[in-house]
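1st attempt posting a full record on here, be nice pls
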Amino acid sequence: MERDVLNQVIDKTKALMEAPTCCAELKEAAKEWLDAVGTNDEDRQTERYLRELKEDIMPIDQLIAFAGSEDGKKYFGEEKAAEIVGHSNTIKQQGAAYCDCPACMLVEELIHLLS
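the predicted structure (as tokens):
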């Protein structure tokens, strides 16, 4: 990985770990990747990290479906769930493929950099 790209990935990974919407599994994968940078394990951890990033990014249609469901209403609360559905439909109409929460936005950038 070129040094400039590596530095971008490191910075975005650190920001991802601080994002309030980043799940525990992704934080762990991010930490393990950071710990492996510059070691013999870097390539393997990069592949693992990229797989986890791809698994954890929230497709916009999936977010809309979940937030609009009874489980989504229980999880977010009815008012917040309705807000999420409305916002998600708006950004979907504007061409968004994924959720635009802080974590998903960083994940999308990281996938691009690592692919």
